[in-house]
Amino acid sequence: MLRIGIIGASGYSGSELMRILSNHTGDIKITCATSRTYAGQPVGRVLPNLRGLVDIKFEDPEVDQIAPRVDLVFLGLPHKTAMTFVPKFLDHNKKVIDFSADYRLKKADVYEKWYQEHTSPHLLEKAVYGLPEIHRDEIRNADLIANPGCFPTGAILAILPALKYDIADAQGIVIDSKTGMSGAGIAPSEATHLPSRYDNFTAYKVGSHRHTPEIEQELSLASCKDVSVAFVPHYVPMSRGILTTVYLRLSKAVSTIELLGIYTQHYKDEPFVRVLDEGEIPQTQAVRGSNFCDIGLKVLEKTKTAIVISAIDNLTKGASSQAIQNMNIVSGFPETAGLMYAGLMP
Amino acid sequence: MLRIGIIGASGYSGSELMRILSNHTGDIKITCATSRTYAGQPVGRVLPNLRGLVDIKFEDPEVDQIAPRVDLVFLGLPHKTAMTFVPKFLDHNKKVIDFSADYRLKKADVYEKWYQEHTSPHLLEKAVYGLPEIHRDEIRNADLIANPGCFPTGAILAILPALKYDIADAQGIVIDSKTGMSGAGIAPSEATHLPSRYDNFTAYKVGSHRHTPEIEQELSLASCKDVSVAFVPHYVPMSRGILTTVYLRLSKAVSTIELLGIYTQHYKDEPFVRVLDEGEIPQTQAVRGSNFCDIGLKVLEKTKTAIVISAIDNLTKGASSQAIQNMNIVSGFPETAGLMYAGLMP
Amino acid sequence: MLRIGIIGASGYSGSELMRILSNHTGDIKITCATSRTYAGQPVGRVLPNLRGLVDIKFEDPEVDQIAPRVDLVFLGLPHKTAMTFVPKFLDHNKKVIDFSADYRLKKADVYEKWYQEHTSPHLLEKAVYGLPEIHRDEIRNADLIANPGCFPTGAILAILPALKYDIADAQGIVIDSKTGMSGAGIAPSEATHLPSRYDNFTAYKVGSHRHTPEIEQELSLASCKDVSVAFVPHYVPMSRGILTTVYLRLSKAVSTIELLGIYTQHYKDEPFVRVLDEGEIPQTQAVRGSNFCDIGLKVLEKTKTAIVISAIDNLTKGASSQAIQNMNIVSGFPETAGLMYAGLMP
Amino acid sequence: MLRIGIIGASGYSGSELMRILSNHTGDIKITCATSRTYAGQPVGRVLPNLRGLVDIKFEDPEVDQIAPRVDLVFLGLPHKTAMTFVPKFLDHNKKVIDFSADYRLKKADVYEKWYQEHTSPHLLEKAVYGLPEIHRDEIRNADLIANPGCFPTGAILAILPALKYDIADAQGIVIDSKTGMSGAGIAPSEATHLPSRYDNFTAYKVGSHRHTPEIEQELSLASCKDVSVAFVPHYVPMSRGILTTVYLRLSKAVSTIELLGIYTQHYKDEPFVRVLDEGEIPQTQAVRGSNFCDIGLKVLEKTKTAIVISAIDNLTKGASSQAIQNMNIVSGFPETAGLMYAGLMP
To answer: For chain B, what is the mean pLDDT?
Structure first.
């Protein structure tokens, strides 16, 4: 039996982990869920959707108390806080799947430029970037898996085949992303205040979002090119979902059908990437709550542009169900265990 | 193996059945899904959330063609159309779970007053009203199950214990319901036009909604009282969920805690009714996409009023997952098979 | 020229005052807008909709600095804070229109039961409840106008005629209200966190909302009856608007047409109350951003219930434009000056 | 007095015209509003926000009946239908402001490629494209004004200065637009069905939207360059507003401050274009219901990209209030008459 601990379990990452794991088909058990705010309270009282389904109480995040009771931990903590927990769980020889950005970037200086000082840079090399569609083999043997950011998941899956097959310029790729507000986390803020968002649409962190280096790193590594992107995220007045519209400058002539063929071929063995047919356009609702990434595309011959669109749920394929996909891989479960369910639509 | 047919499968009832059944744990198989509009097209092309999960094509609804391939059919057809199919499938000795209102009312004259002429009134007695919390035993042996309306499900479950235990007046019960727009079905209309609904709230069919006689019938039968209700539904600018706020005139003095005790006791063996603790208030998000009905209540002593609030998802407990609960009962599966998953929250 | 000061101008009440006053046709000028948070910043930088339309800067709320420059002040401050400002402005002989609840209740003990200690109870008698449809004549000569709460505005206007004409029981009136989230104010909170509200519907403060005594007071005073209400507010996943559904027990037989006649007659000279025709149902969008209150009704003879529905915009007729209506009355402008514009629909 | 006719007045363009004109300060009168569907019904019964504000009835669109009673007509009709009315009103020597696309394109062959056969191509030269920020002088003397499309309004205003000042490549400009659903008009459709859109985000008409040639034409004419664009519109689950994110390839080095300076200078005399300060990002709510276009921008030096973002309300600056701006210009009213009001925010 795999004993699972969830550190920082009352936020969206944690609550989604519990929701999804409550229907996992493997021999697993959540033995620990921490929350400083709700320590001592039943999970189902704090998260009413889990009432009757998850029968444990939140506890304080005490590593030494928790380590003996778990084989693998998910860390749903903010950046920087994660750094204080990851080394401790690794010292206890526990597998760690970390939702924060702390171990996603390979280079400490890049991390420090976009975030803050890194206190365990020696782990950066050791950490595996947990996007199974690129790093499945390394994930299998990893001790520390850095679960990808939500925007990078959608953007990388949309762009990679075009770069790998040398079809598009690697410089100045335009990534226009639109996210539901759950991407901002469970803590209320001006950004998530309903009257500020409702019947409103805007961009934010224009060209300066922290997911930029993560996207550039992974695309560069996987394509062996020096990739640069112009990345603009936007707030959609909705709860879940990221739609990413990518504009690629074509470096060779290719038709929509040909490019679809390349994408279909590239992802043919991936259980959670669905390349749509010609004329179909991804929509976030079709993947809501699920682990799928839907991709559609179109070539505009006049302007030598390929438009590739991907849709994910930021809380599932963009976070928690992708983490469970990683758990399945690293723990020897079938990769799809507990994850082959449909998006909630409508 | 239970072979399942879904007649009228491209609407919300049908698509939700397929979504939920794709994770059912019993030995079942969807062998047929009909849609006049989409006959010949793959389900996953029409309903993109099911892409890769449901591998059949829509076909035309030809009873004679379908009957040999199914043991049980769900009918997701409009009122009146259902009447033309139900007798045929019964003649083929198939179990029928019907989503329409055609067999919910016991008396043909009541049906004909609120709907239209009834062409198979002899089946009204035979049909079982498919609310397991009231009619579980009859469902077990039923051939024809009339799956309840969405509003009646939430209203009846909220009101029944208070009537059974003689705590409230049976006359003039106020039922103020609020529904997400998926309750209007998949066909676009002025009522569901997004700009007409967005940042807008209104009532409709004030005191004249067709679910009124259904609520009054079931409450009267189950409580052995002559129940009358003032029922007003409202459109909420959202997709899923019904919150029902019931105002009961207390016929005897009772405290909030006492009334909660009565409800908790009444529903203690029900897997899908969750009576919340004192001070907790149901919310539709906690049950979104799930088969749960959450109930909370409060007594106002000054005005001798009990306020009982229930939350369901109109497409699941209010329609498709409740139908599967009925299928489980009538087919000998564990009642909770494939249904014990959490609401999608946030 | 009327010189206007807005104390607490960066919240919704204040920003709406500036939006509406920027199109007022009278000889007025906003000479002061205060905000501790944004003191020194141009209004149009903080409130981008007002950019280019309101050309002043926020300043600190220093009464002695402000008094010489204003003839009338609007106070858009929280309960309790208002009490510290109102007496000072009155001492400077300024007209005060106060948005808080601090001077709405006539009896200090009722106020103290529902809110907190009152530090200027002697002003409670002096204050006029600023609902022009009831207190127009007193408003004309008032120094201190207590601008009504949003829920009371919609509820009182919906109920009063039925009580005045002795058509309904005064005890146990059911008031089921639904409000957009801007009613919670500009400060982010768990209640207004978009992912918590989106595709979600719930009740709150069931039977315990602070607007209850305000509704009971004004209805009792105006009808000369002892009125009690069961009042339940609900959060609607939208920004603006309150729909109130009132359930009245009829004390005499009356038809829908007769009751409509009574309401139409009662409000025939009111410029901002629109009694709809038979069969029409109010909707919040029709009054969005406007000063109108729309009322529709229906009698259910079977259950001897009258259902009266009112729609207002909580930020305008429920707050800022009603305050300007009061300003017009107290300052000698035509009552409709600057207020006869249509709701924003769709 | 200017006598105004509105042909096709029950749709969004028409209802917004009536809403805005009801507060126009000039000597105007709406003498005629047509609607085949609602002929004979009072405007305020069909459009409840206008109840009490617009006191005429809808009538049938009979040109000969209408012409004697109007000086200027707005045509809020679908493409193709407009072509059957415009020549007739011109023959009656009436000024025409047409909302359709029928007279926006200068070349009949381009029109016929994207739309259908043109039945009055001789009028294409005569028609003036009604974007005052480009064509103010020609509008002044025009008989036929082709009111711009909603997307082109936001896109052209965002792009033009960069092209005029030779700062960006004219080929392959990326225009990623996001629109509220009122852009789809008042007729319900699958696209506007609330459950299909809610908590959903998607693109549509990828690279094939009919506004593409309109954008390319006007940018080419105004910049004397051969402009081509990759234009992708997206549906936002909201009612009003268009945010357009433009990605320009810089043809010369320029900083954010320098580019802002160019835009500020270019629009310094425009009453309805607000160039925001450095770091400010446009949002649709700030212009909701208003005639403003807000523009913000940022230069990404690493990728030599300028990101320019504009926000308009598709129904006002993108349609009806822009049409009134045109009416003001062509009729000799101050250009801002009746249009200087703030966006509805929140």
So the answer is: 98
User: What's the rounded Cα separation, in Å, for the pair B217 and B106?
Assistant: 8
Q: How confident is the model at residue D227 (pLDDT cuts 50, 70, 90)?
A: very high
Chain D residues whose CB is inside 8 A of the C287 CB are 49
How close is the nearest chain B Cα to the Cα of A31, in Å? 19
In angstroms, rounded to a whole number, what is the distance separating the alpha carbons of residues D149 and D319? Answer: 7
Q: Which amino acid is at C45?
A: R
Helix (H) or strand (E) holding B231: strand B229-235
Q: Which tens digits make up the pLDDT trace of C10-49?
A: 999 999 999 999 999 999 999 999 999 999 999 999 999 9
Nearest to C4 by CA among C223, C296, C327: C327
| Mean pLDDT within D161-180 | 97
Contact B32, B101 (CB under 8 A): no
- The topology (CATH level 3) of A151-312 is Dihydrodipicolinate Reductase; domain 2 (3.30.360)
Hey, are the CB atoms on D48 and C22 less than 8 Å from each other?
no
- Return the residue matching tokens 């007046």: B169
Please state whether beta strands D293-300 and D305-312 pair in parallel, antiparallel, or not at all (unpaired).
antiparallel
Q: Across-strand partners of A296? A: A309
- Read off the pLDDT of each residue in C223-233 and give the average, rounded to a whole number: 98
D220 touches chain C (CB under 8 A): no
The CA R_g of chain D, rounded to the nearest whole Å, is 20
Q: Give the pLDDT of residue B111.
A: 97
Which amino acid is present at C111? Y
How are beta strands C202-203 and C229-235 bridged, if at all? antiparallel
- Sheet containing D293-300: order of strands: D202-203, D229-235, D173-179, D242-249, D305-312, D293-300, D273-275
Distances (CA, A) of A42 to A9, A18, B296, D331: 12, 13, 18, 70
What are the residue ranges spanned by the domains of chain C? Answer: 2-147+319-331, 151-312
Please report residues of B whose CB lies closer than 8 A to that of C202. Answer: 243, 281-285, 311
Q: Which of D113, D178, D201 to mutate to test the interface with A (most CBs of A within 10 A)?
A: D201
| Secondary structure element (H or E) that encloses residue C64, with its range | helix C63-66
Answer yes or no: are the C-beta atoms of B247 and B173 closer than 8 Å. yes
Chains that touch A (3 or more CB pairs under 8 A): B, C, D
Count of positions (residues) in chain C = 346
DSSP three-state, residue A268? coil
Residue D5: phi and psi, rounded to 5, are -110, 140
**C-alpha dihedral (D212, D214, D220, D222), degrees to nearest 10:** -140
Asked if D198 has any chain B CB less than 8 Å from its own CB, the reply is yes
Inter-residue contact A314 to A179 (CB < 8 Å): yes
What angle separates helix A320-331 from helix A132-140, to the nearest 10 degrees?
A: 40
Contact assessment for residue A344 and residue B288, using Cβ atoms and an 8 Å cutoff: yes
- CA-based nearest residue to D183, from A236, B198, B195: B195
Q: Which among D164, D86, D170 has a CA at the least distance from the CA of D122? A: D86
Q: D2-147+319-331 adopts what CATH topology?
A: Rossmann fold (3.40.50)
CB nearest B307 (choices: C207, C238, C281): C207
Residue A62: other Cβ atoms inside 10 A? 11
DSSP string for residues in C211-246 = HHHHHHHHHHHHHTS---EEEEEEE-SSSS-EEEEE
Q: Which residues of D13-50 are buried (b: 16+ CB within 10 A; e: fewer)?
A: bbbbbbbbbbbbebebbbbbbbbeebeeeebbebbbbb
Residue B240 touches partner A, C-beta closer than 8 Å: yes
* ipTM of predicted complex: 0.97
Q: In what order do the strands lie in the sheet with B293-300?
A: B202-203, B229-235, B173-179, B242-249, B305-312, B293-300, B273-275
